[in-house]
Amino acid sequence: MLVFAAGSALAATPAPMKSAITAATVTTQLPRGVVPTHYDLAFTPDADKLTFTASVKVAVDVTAPTNTITLQAADLTFAKAEMAGVGAAKITVDAEAQTATFTFDKVVTKGSHVLAIDYSGKIYKQAAGLFALDYDTAQGKKRALYTQFENSDARRFIPSWDEPFFKATYDVQVTVPTGQMAIGNMPIAKTEDLGGGKSKVTFATSPKMSTYLLFFGLGDFERGTAKVGDVEMGVITKKGDLAKADFALKSSGPILQWYNDYFGAPYPLPKLDHIAAPGQSQFFSAMENWGAIFYFEYALLEDPAISTQADRQNIYTTVAHEMAHQWFGDLVTMSWWDDLWLNEGFASWMESRATEHFHPEWNTQLGAINNREYAMGLDSLATTHPVVQHVETVDQASQAFDAITYEKGEAVIRMLEAYVGHEAWRSGVRAYIKANAHGSTQTDDLWREVEIAAGKPITAIAHDFTLQPGIPLITADTGACAAGKTPVTLTQGEFSRDKPTKTPLAWRVPVSAQVAGSSTVAKTLVKGGKGSLSVDGCGPVIVNAGQAGYYRILYTPKAFAGVSASFAKLPAIDQLGVISDAWALGLNGQQPVTDALDLTMATPAEADPQVWGKVAGVLANVNGMYESAPADRAAFRKLAIARLSPAFAKIGWTAKPGEAAPVATLRTTLITTLGALGDPAVVAEAKRRYAADKTDPTAVPGPLRKAILATVARNADAATWDALREQAKAEKTPLIRDQLYTQLASTENDALAAKALDLALTDEPGETLSANMISRVSQLHPDLAFDFAVAHKDAVNGKVDAASSTKFIPSLAKGSADPAMIDKVRAYAAANLPAGSRGEAEKSVAAITDRIKARKAALPQITAWVAKKG
Questions:
Q1: pLDDT tens-place string over residues 412-437
Q2: Is 288 a catalytic residue?
Q3: Is the model's pTM score more than 0.85?
Q4: Which of 163, 288, 302, 322 is catalytic?
Q5: H or E stretch at 130
Q6: CB-CB contact of 510 with 464 (8 Å)
Q7: CA 572 to CA 268: how far, in whole Å?
Q8: Which one, out of 123, 195, 602, 742, has a CA that is 20 to 30 A from the CA of 152?
Q9: pLDDT for 830-870, tens place per residue?
Q10: Which residues neighbour 831 within 8 Å (Cβ) at sequence distance 6 or greater?
């Protein structure tokens, strides 16, 4: 999106920041001549007035005499600033640069000084800086306060060196209403009753950390705890919701112990809280503040009235992700946002490792294919960027939080880990953590340690996949089997959906292959564009066997025919990989798009539920392509429903005792997919159950509530939509209420979608849900949502958090297939966004262009295929 016990790791002197990291090697907005070492912050929030007053004393080291000190500040009003022994400062604010400069009459000499600042600031209604979230209770509306500082919003709360390189310790003191719970990164050291309904809370001194990891929360909360060694694990919710955080609390203890061992470094803080808050953000679902991880409720709380198996798994992986950040990101931090993937790619990879370890019954390793496909969706367009990317501005840093940073980062790590071996990889990671604890790093610091541990060169391979964008395309040509071995010729190109014909980029690509049904895997490193393998056994050869590689496979027609013929017998992960490659290459015109559809027809009834989920996804994708061809869509829907209905009939509406978790997830997937396809039986049953919910407690079981609501809302008429709205207005549980308003924005009906957009800009849904509603409308009505947002630009931007301000409106158009939308998006960007902040707009343009091209090429093939299938 995060007083020490005796013997704590933090008792040791923290490692200094690397002197080798200089302004010449790291992009930065601030000079490095003044470095903060400690912040002593005291503040008083006024939740009713949405303001706060504060004073901060910043201990700094000055490396050369100066008359000016510049730091970052945004939306802050300064009363005064002075430095002991130097005097008062003249304060100059640059609102556009988000800086404040303090100019002194006397020279600030080289050495240590303390800069004291009195100031005030805003409490926002969206998740940036110090912000407020309102929610309903049986006693009426209440308000809670939280902070969100990543990537560059600590400056909205504290004038600071708000860049990850600058690490310092923090003492925080806050004056709050007596009886409310205050939360910080560290445990409370002292609470003093000031009288008059106010108390002063002082937190213990923090470890050395970057500004974006500082956290504060305040409200009518309750806290549950569990002891894990010397660490107090906690969950914090608004009052009445603590039981819903039980799964997260019970999960986090074993994860902490496992991470302590994996990283070879014990978690260094005395407590680790997981904090649940109502509402939503367009930018994040959780944030790894050190010792005080923030989550929106949907990412942490499990409510039996509405939570699904997929929700349960999402809670687990989110907790695992944010806890991994306590090492990758918090203990060791990238020096600058260029290397953001060191945080996010590794946390994504680690969440998968932890989930596979503790919940093998979920079979979540198959999810790696979906993650990889999500990344490749961006990485195959010219608007992509390298994993390690150049970042200059706050907007660019915000836009760096995308599938390349997260999912491609994770996929590259999986590939490199498979290449060097699990043990060597872990040894390298441990050495990296040990060498850089409490410091800042760049990507090559990691490669150096892994290469030493592995005893084999990986830096060149890693550079190919992280310092340049794009996806290798491996063309596989299988020869005739001889003497029990099958030769495979490999040629490396580049998979791109919109680049002009040119010489492809070059990668060193670790490639694996095996004969279908064999247990022997052959491996090679394709370099210089060529490679070959001799695979044990005779039969169809699966390239990228096990799917650890980040590349696409294009089989020659003869080779693909063999793979297709053996498809039903392949391991589930290879079935997913083969379908994914065939579908992407088909849409790109590099093989018949119907090859992927043939695979959906060849999927056996007993296939893994996640493979059936992929089949449903491909068919749903085709359904969306036919939005402007209703007659052809009707024919396709008939075929798709006939394909999916037997799979759904097999598992049914009612969960069976002891059924596997993936089956429960497939049930909800098939209900929503068949509902989107307009299956009369599923739509009718969903409507029947929804109508019976008030009188029959079994009609809408919690795990099916979202799927039933989604089906009813998507197929709603005006009366049904109005009924859903009345239900949403009356609902007091935020998780259920938010879901109802989200579904109001998920209707196929154009007129009702327009009503949802109008509703989104009223006070009714709540401040943080409005943008989500607009975004949901854009999934089925991208042109409508974009035009609406542009027409109401100021009101819409007022509902969006600061980190999403340059991304939100352009992103609404990305699902369009209307050529006119390309000029609209570019016109909006040119009129409203700085030149360096138009990345999301260009991504939307690229997506629209690609969609138009793919539909033009693919739909005639698909329509003919449907007619042939009858």
A1: 999 999 999 999 999 999 999 999 99
A2: no
A3: yes
A4: 322
A5: strand 129-137
A6: no
A7: 40
A8: 742
A9: 999 999 899 999 999 999 999 999 999 999 999 999 999 97
A10: none
